[in-house]
Amino acid sequence: MGQPLRIALVAGEASGDILGAGLMRALKAQHARIEFVGVGGPLMQAEGLESYFPMERLAVMGLVEVLGRLPELLGRRRRLLRDLIQAKPDVFIGIDAPDFNLDLELKLRRAGIKTVHYVSPSVWAWRQKRVLKIRQACDLMLCLFPFEAKFYDAQQVPVRFVGHPLADTIPLQAERHAARAALDLPQEAPVVALLPGSRGGEVARLGALFLDAATRLRALRPGIRFVLPSASPERRAQLEQLLVDRDLPLTLVDGRSHEVLAACDAVLIASGTATLEALLYKRPMVVAYRVAPLTYRILKRLVKSPYISLPNLLAERLLVPELIQDAATPESLAQHLAPLLEDGEVQTEGFDVIHRALRRDASVQAAQAVLELAGRA
C-alpha cells in the first residue's frame, strides 16, 4: 500500500484550530492513509494531530507582548523546524499566523519540503513587499477571498481560492424569529445590534460612541431595541460600566454573536472579521472605526486599499457606509443607520451574491489542492 501521507500543520490561535480541523477532516475523507504532525489546538488534536507543544504558546497579540515572549517564540520555531525536517512531511501547511509561519515555510521549502500557507495575510492592503517573501516561501497560497487570489495571480504566486468556511456553515437565509425567541427579544420591534469589537481597546474607543449613536437613533425611531453581545466576562464588565446612567432599551448578551446577528434588523459594527459574519447573515450595516490619532496618520500613508471593511472589499464598491476616525460621530452613525431599518435591500442583495460566491465547501477545496500538491490527488 506504500507509505502513508504525512501532513504537517501549524496553527497559532483558535480560528486557525477551527480551519485546521476542517481541513484535516476533508483530507481524511479523500485519502485513506494519512497522519498529521505539527502544532494545533484541541480541535486539530481531536482529528488526529500529534502536537509537538501546546498551541497556546504561539497565541500572543500586541507589540509589547510579542517582544516580551520573543526569545521563547524564536526558540520554539528553531526546535519546530528541526523536528519537522526530521519528520519529512509530504506537505507543510501554515495556517494564518504569518509572522511565525512564513519564516518556517521559507526554511522548510529550502529543505525540500512542499509548503502551503492557508489564509492570506493582508498584503493587498499594506506592506505589499511581503509578497516577495511569500513567493519564496510558499508552493501554494490558499485564499479565502477572490480579491486575494487576483492579487497573487498578478504577483505570480501560485494560488487557489477555496472560499470561506463560514459561508459554508451560515445558512443562506437566517431565521430571525427563532433567534429573537432564544434571546428573549420582541418579535415586532425594530432591533439594532451593536458590535463595537471583542478587544478591550476597541471597546474603549468605540463602546461609548456606539451607545451615544444608539441614543440618537432612539430619538429618530421611538420603540427601537438594541442588543449587544460581549465577547468575554472582561468585555461585559467594561460594557456594563459604559451603560451606567444610560437609559437605553438594550439587552446585553454573553457571547452568542451569531444569534444576535440573526435576530437583528441592522448592525452598527466595528471594522473587522465580524463584518463578514454580518454580511453572511444578510443584515444591513454601518461600519465604524477609530484608532489613536498617530496610528491613523501612519496607517493612512501605508494602507493601499480603497476600503477598510470586508463587505466593500468583496463587493469591489462602496456597498456599506464606512465612517472612520473623525467622521464617526454619534449623529452621523445614527443618520446612516436609520434608513437601513426600512430599506436595506441594496446591501442585502449584494450580500447574497457575495455569500454564494464564497460558499464553495472550503475545507474540501483546500484538501484537494493540498493532495494535488503532494501528488496524491
UniProtKB/TrEMBL annotation:
**Which keywords describe this protein according to UniProt?**
Glycosyltransferase, Lipid A biosynthesis, Lipid biosynthesis, Lipid metabolism, Transferase
Pfam families cross-referenced by the UniProt entry: LpxB (PF02684)
Q: Which GO terms describe its molecular function?
A: lipid-A-disaccharide synthase activity
Q: Which Enzyme Commission number(s) are on file for it?
A: 2.4.1.182
Keyword DNA repair, does the record have it? no
* Catalytic function, reaction form: a lipid X + a UDP-2-N,3-O-bis[(3R)-3-hydroxyacyl]-alpha-D-glucosamine = a lipid A disaccharide + UDP + H(+)
Pathway per the UniProt entry: Bacterial outer membrane biogenesis; LPS lipid A biosynthesis
Q: Which Gene3D superfamilies match?
A: Glycogen Phosphorylase B
Return the InterPro entries for the record. Glyco_trans_19
What HAMAP family does this protein's entry cite?
LpxB
**Family under the similarity heading:** Belongs to the LpxB family.
The record's function comment reads: Condensation of UDP-2,3-diacylglucosamine and 2,3-diacylglucosamine-1-phosphate to form lipid A disaccharide, a precursor of lipid A, a phosphorylated glycolipid that anchors the lipopolysaccharide to the outer membrane of the cell.
Q: Do you know which NCBIfam families this protein is assigned to?
A: lpxB
Query: What protein does this entry describe?
Result: Lipid-A-disaccharide synthase
Q: Which organism is it from?
A: Pseudomonas benzenivorans
